[in-house]
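does this look right to u?? zinc ion version
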Amino acid sequence: IRLLTPPSMFCAGTEIFFVVVSYPKFASNMSAANRSQPIKLNRPVVGKARKLKDLMLKSDNRVCADCSAPDPKWASSNIGVFLCLKCGDVHRALGQDISNVLSLTLDDWSDSDIDSMIEVGGNSYANSIYEAFLPKDHPKPKPDSPMEYRTKFIRW
Ligand SMILES: [Zn+2]
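got this back:
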């Protein structure tokens, strides 16, 4: 996922579209009503949490959206991707209004967090949008890529 790409001739439309649609989602994530009944994913899984578990089990979501490290334990609920710890750290450093990073096992997930993950559908769809115009000289990081490269890719 490339989050801070400056608008260019080819991807300006996509980037602007995502900024516009993600902001209202973020705002609703923060409302008191939606935060009042958090769902712990490590409790018995029912309802929406069940749907999120099912999403986690899809093959494209069993690896980090950015570096393909196996078994991601984090997710960005507004962007709708599953992330490894290292890429999750880079996302978190961008600020919650850009990428709302949550632990799949430790954090409370609100209904709206889960809804926005399910709406995007996970790594394949999100990457098809955010990485539609990936430049050839800027390949995706690998699980063992240094933090500098990972950060450069995600913030690029
Ligand atoms: Zn990663």
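The mean pLDDT is 80. idk if thats expected tbh
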